[in-house]
Amino acid sequence: xxxxxxxxxxxxxxxxxxxxxxxxxxxxxxxxxxxxxxxxxxxxxxxxxxxxxxxxxxxxxxxxxxxxxxxxxxxxxxxxxxxxxxxxxxxxxxxxxxxxxxxxxxxxxxxxxxxxxxxxxxxxxxxxxxxxxxxxxxxxxxxxxxxxxxxxxxxxxxxxxxxxxxxxxxxxxxxxxxxxxxxxxxxxxxxxxxxxxxxxxxxxxxxxxxxxxxxxxxxxxxxxxxxxxxxxxxxxxxxxxxxxxxxxxxxxxxxxxxxxxxxxxxxxxxxxxxxxxxxxxxxxxxxxxxxxxxxxxxxxxxxxxxxxxxxxxxxxxxxxxxxxxxxxxxxxxxxxxxxxxxxxxxxxxxxxxxxxxxxxxxxxxxxxxxxxxxxxxxxxxxxxxxxxxxxxxxxxxxxxxxxxxxxxxxxxxxxxxxxxxxxxxxxxxxxxxxxxxxxxxxxxxxxxxxxxxxxxxxxxxxxxxxxxxxxxxxxxxxxxxxxxxxxxxxxxxxxxxxxxxxxxxxxxxxxxxxx
Length: 515
Known about the structure:
Layout: H1 24-30, H2 56-62, H3 72-85, H4 105-122, E1 126-132, H5 139-148, E2 155-160, H6 167-182, H7 188-197, H8 216-221, E3 230-235, H9 237-240, H10 247-258, E4 268-274, H11 285-288, E5 295-297, H12 305-315, H13 323-338, H14 340-352, H15 356-368, H16 379-389, H17 402-416, E6 421-422, H18 424-437, E7 444-445, E8 448-449, H19 457-465, E9 469-471, E10 486-488, H20 492-502, H21 505-512
Parallel strand pairs: 1-4, 1-5, 2-3, 3-4
Antiparallel strand pairs: 6-10, 7-8, 9-10
Helix pairs in contact: 2-13, 4-5, 15-16, 17-18, 17-19, 17-20
């Protein structure tokens, strides 16, 4: 019989256990993730309460508030394993439809893209396709995973429309990546031609020299003659369509179209990745005629249980740390996901955005914040991680000059009165009424009170330029600047925090009159 697992519990005094302690396999077979408390017989629960049988009170009795010192290395090892699985290159965020009745969109796209690249890598075909889907739906992950699953290692050229903003930059990047992966120089002839035309008495800067676009067709046509098949990935494909004459796309797709099986050349595949659904319409006629027309689509998960299952799988990464830590960690994860409030937070976040990268950032922060004093994930850690993802707007309002703060308070009074759209004259009138009614002096110069300062136009223009006020109508020559209609974008709570941070009594009294 295996050795019983020691529980970090203080045994009850003068009360011997009524039943022998169960081992880890027996506990896990009895109730998944829920142990039987030693020394006490388990209570029989009604069917209505069977789902709540793993109560938080019962589970918390099995988990220590502070991690024992000998388990500290296990916690660090578990953190490293979870963080490694959360890397973008780990492919943990590719949709898994193993439990679904029908295959998901991403699973079908994966198989289609795999068949397409297998034709280019194994049979020497020329293929092209467009991978379309919203941000965070798994386009890049699917592409990388398919390339890793290929039997032969191809040459992979990755171009980005955000970085290679013209064909000359793209040509330089293609040549550099080919040189790194093949060991040959593809710009030697170009660089020699450039060196012949340079003045020998001037200092040359090789990093700024770019090949002319006329070398693009010659370089692209050499790709099928390389020793290995080549896959070209064009990230932000729609931005390449805005290049002059679309020369890069034309050369790539024309070379793909000319690849034929049995010619003795290796295959070439061009994959365009974009989130814009009308990208095909951006192509010129000569480029569109050479495009295969294959459009593969990706989609984010449609149900929130995918996020919960994914989080559970990531947190339960197996490590070699002994049965005691494995049992304790799995028990903590089960308790964490059995908490109804945790499920509600995940479901609410999923309803706002289905981008799985947000879940990745939240889990990274939750795991990195684990310490021996708080060794297990909790609801407060999730709320803190979600709050850190969105920076509070207008957090430095208390640093604004005095006239600008007065205008914001006047805008709050106008909103309370039902005027969401205001002008500078309206705000100035509200300020003047408060100035007449106020006998306090919020500002002092050389120790003397001067009363409330005059609210100037400069303060309003500053708020307008920083985006705190937004015009509701276009500019007109017939409307004076002080009568331009605008809307205040700063909320009441943000103004309240700024007034409290400033600490001036007169401003506080004026602000709370709007309640």
